[in-house]
Automatic annotation (TrEMBL), chain A:
Membrane-spanning ranges: 20-44, 79-102, 123-148, 154-174, 186-206, 239-259, 302-323, 347-370, 397-421, 433-454, 461-480, 500-528
Signal peptide annotation: none
Nucleotide-binding recorded as keyword: no
Organism: Nonomuraea pusilla
Lineage: Bacteria, Bacillati, Actinomycetota, Actinomycetes, Streptosporangiales
Protein name: ABC-2 type transport system permease protein
TrEMBL record, chain B:
InterPro entries found in the cross-reference section: AAA+_ATPase (IPR003593), ABC_transporter-like_ATP-bd (IPR003439), ABC_transporter-like_CS (IPR017871), ABC_transporter_ATP-binding (IPR050763), DrrA1/2-like_C (IPR025302), P-loop_NTPase (IPR027417)
Organism of provenance: Nonomuraea pusilla
SUPFAM superfamilies: P-loop containing nucleoside triphosphate hydrolases
A GO-annotated cellular component: plasma membrane
Membrane-protein topology: Peripheral membrane protein
Similarity section: Belongs to the ABC transporter superfamily.
Pfam families: ABC_tran, DrrA1-3_C
PROSITE patterns linked: ABC_TRANSPORTER_1, ABC_TRANSPORTER_2
GO molecular function: ATP binding; ATP hydrolysis activity
Subcellular location: Cell membrane
Annotated protein name in UniProt: ABC-2 type transport system ATP-binding protein
Amino acid sequence: MNAFAGTGKLIRLVLRRDRVLLPLWVAFICMIPVVFVGAFTGAYPTAEARQHYYETSVHTRAFTIAYGVLNGSSLGELVAWRSGFVTFMVALFALLTVIRHTRTEEAAGRRELVGATAVSRHADLAATLIVTCGAALVLGVASALALIGQGLPAAGSLALGLGFTVAGCVFGAIGAVTAQLTTGAGGARAIGISTLGAAILLRGVGDVAAQSGDGPAWVTWLTPLGWAEALRPYSGERWWVLALAAGAVLALIVLAVALSERRDLGAGMFQARLGPAAAGPRLRSPLALAWRLHRGPLISRLAGLALVGLVVGAMSASLGTLMDNSGAAAREALARLGGPGTLVDQFLAPMMTMLGLVSAGFAIQAALLLRNEERDGRAEPLLATPVRRLRWAGSHFAFILLGPALGLIAFGTAAGLAHGLNTGDVARELSRLLAAALVQLPVVWVFTGVAFALFGLLPRLVAGTFAVAMVSMLLGWVGQELQLDQWVINLSVFEHVPKLPGGVMTATPLIVMTVVAAALVAAGLAGFTRRDMPTT
Amino acid sequence: MMTETDAISIAGLVKSFGPARALNGLDLVVRTGEVHGFLGPNGAGKSTTIRILLGLMRPDAGTARLLGGDPWTQTAELHRRLAYVPGDVTLWPNLSGGEAIDLLGRLRGSLDRRRRDELIERFDLDPRKKGRTYSKGNRQKVALVAALASDAELLILDEPTSGLDPLMEEVFRQTIQEVRRAGDRTVLLSSHILSEVEALCDRITIIRDGRTVETGTMAELRHLTRTSIDAELAGPPDGLAGLPGVHGLRADGGRVRFSVDAAALDLALRHLTQAGVRSLVSRPPTLEELFLRHYDRATANLKGRHAEAGR
C-alpha cells in the first residue's frame, strides 16, 4: 500500500468537518488588509499626510512590536505594515487546525477508527497539512487579488498575501511536529503556542532593532513570522524568501513524519509513567482534584509569563535608550502623538494590554477544563457522590479566578525586577509594573464571567468565549482606523483599562468590570444548579 | 404502588431533549434487597432514567423516588447511600486508577480498604496506570472496584460489563451473586446482555422507546410468552395445527416442532399424548426470545414508519 493511500478521502473528511469554519476564516482574514486600504485612503488621502503618519509611527515601539517594520510611507507599505498582526492570527489558526485534526483525533480514539480502514499511516497528517496549507494559499492569493482590485501594485499585493501563506504553512507544519510529541492535544497546543509566542517575541526584538538601526536585527530571520515580513511587500519584493520558507516547511514535515514513524498509535515522544497504586492522604476533596487537574497548566503558564516578563522588562530600558538616540525629529513626533508618560512607558503600556488578552485566554482555557470534565463524562461519577454541584464548580472556580491573578503578579514582578535593575530603582519599577499588570485583572475576570455564564446557561458555547475576547480586542485595535462610532469601540472592554504604566489610574471602570464579572458568574452558577448534567 | 420496601420507585417519567423524547411515561419499581435487571435496546432511555435517579437531570413530568427521598433536592444525602458505575467510564488522564478509586470512595465517605485491595486482585487490575493509558475494559474495572468497595446500600450499575472480557464478566457475576446472597444491598443493573440479567436478577424491567413494556420475575415474564416443543410422535398430531395459541408448527414424518402460548400449553400437550409421545423436549422461553419479541416489534414499527415516510 502506498504511504499516502486514502489521503484524498481524508481531505474530504477534513473539509467536510471544517466546511463552515474554514471559509469564514479565510474570508475574514482577506477583508482585513482591504479594510486598511479604505481606512488609510480615507484618513490620509495625500502623500504628505501619509508621510506625516509614517514619521509618527515608525518610532513607536508598541507599533513595531505589534505590526513589524515600517519600510516607507506609500499606501502599500502602510497597509502591509498595519496588517502585520494578521500573520500571528494566520499562524495560530493553522497551528490549532493541524493539531485539532491530528492529535485531538488520536486522543479521542477516532484516528484508530479511521486508521483501521484502507488508509495509510501518514494519510491523516498529509490530508490535514494539504488542507491547511491549501487554505493558507487560497487566503494569500485571495488577499492579493483583493488588494490588486483596490488598485495596489500587483507584485506587492502578491508578496503580502504570500506572507500570510508562509505564516500559515510554517505554523501548520510546526503543529504537525508538536502533535507527535505529547499524548494529549492540550500539551501539543501548549508547545505550539509557546513556539508562536517565542516567534512573536523574537520578531519584535529584531524589528525594534532594525527600526532603530542598532541592535540584533538579524534575530528577525530566526522566526517564520519574520520571513513574511522579509518578503518586503510594496518595498522591493524579495521573492527568494519564499524558497527559504518552503525549505523550512519541507524540513518540518519530514521531521513530523520521522517522529510519527517512531511511535505507536496514541503514544507520544514523551511516555506516560506509572502512578501511585493508592491516593495520597490529601486527595480527598473536589478542591484537591481540581488542583491536580489545573496545576500542570497553571505552573507552565506562570513560568511562561514570568519569563516573558523578564525579557520585556530587560528590553525596556535599552529600547528607551535607542529611542533617545534616534534623533530629535522622532522624539518630537512622539511628543506630538501625545502618548502619556515616557518612551519606555509607551512600550510597556501596550505590552500590558497584550498581557491582559493573554491572561484572559488562560482564564478561558481554565474554564474550558471545567466544561470538558462535564462533556467527557468525568463529572458524572463525582456528582453521584455526596459532592454538591456548587462545590464541584466552586473548586474549579478557585483556579479559574485566582490562576490569572497569579499570572499577572508573576509577569509584573518579573518585568518590574528586570526593568528596575536596569534603571537602578527596583522599588519604584516593581510597584509601578506590578500595578500596571494587576489593573488587567478585572478585564480578565470579565471573560471568566462570560465563560461561567455560558457554562451555566449555554454550556455548548463555552469555547465561544475565545471569539468574544478576540473580537473585543480587534474592535480596540482597528476601531480607530475604521472610524467606527465611539460606542462600538467602547464595546471593547480592553479599551476601558487604565493605560498603565504612564497613564491615568481610574478606579471606576475597574469596579464596574468587577461587578459585571461577579454578576456573570452568579448568573452562570444559578443556571448551573438548575440545568441537566451532562449537557453534551 | 410505593411502599416502604421500595428502593426505587418511578412513575410516568417523561423527559425530552429538544424534539427528541427520551422517556415517555416510564415506570420502574425496584424493591429493597433485590437485584433488578433494567433491560432495553440502545437508546431506549436507560441512562437518562439513571441520570434522573442521580439528580443530574430533572424530569419534565412524572415522579422519581430514591431510597425514600427526592433525587433532585436531597442529592447529597441520598448519594451517601449509593454507588454508581457509569456506562461509559472516562478517567482523569493524569490520575492513576488507584487514585481515582480512592478519591471516589473518600468523596462518598465509605471505602473498605481490605475489600478494595481484594477487588483489585480479583479483577486483575493494575492500579498504578494513568487514566489515559487504560483500555475500555480496564476503565470499567476501576469504576466497578470503586463502587463495589463501598458499603453503599444501593448500587446503580449502567451496563457495567461493557468492554470486560469473559473472564472478568464471570468475576463480576460472582461478585454480584455474593451481594445477592448477602441480601443487604439493592442493585439496579442496566444491561443488554441477556444471559447476565437472567443469571443475576430477581426481577426484570424491559423498556423500549422510553416506556416500560414488561416487568416482573423471570417466571412471571415466562408466563407471558411461549414454550418451544420438539416431540417425536407415534401417529399424526390431528387437530394440533388448528389449536389457538400454537405457532410455527412444522411436522416432518413423526416429528413435530412448534411454540405454544402458556395458556394453550395444557391443551396442546393433551393432543400430543393422544397421538402417542415417543420423546419430548420442551424448552422454556429464554429472556432473549422475550426481549427479541419486543425488539422485533420495535423494528417492525420503525420499518412501518420509514415506509410511510417514503410514500
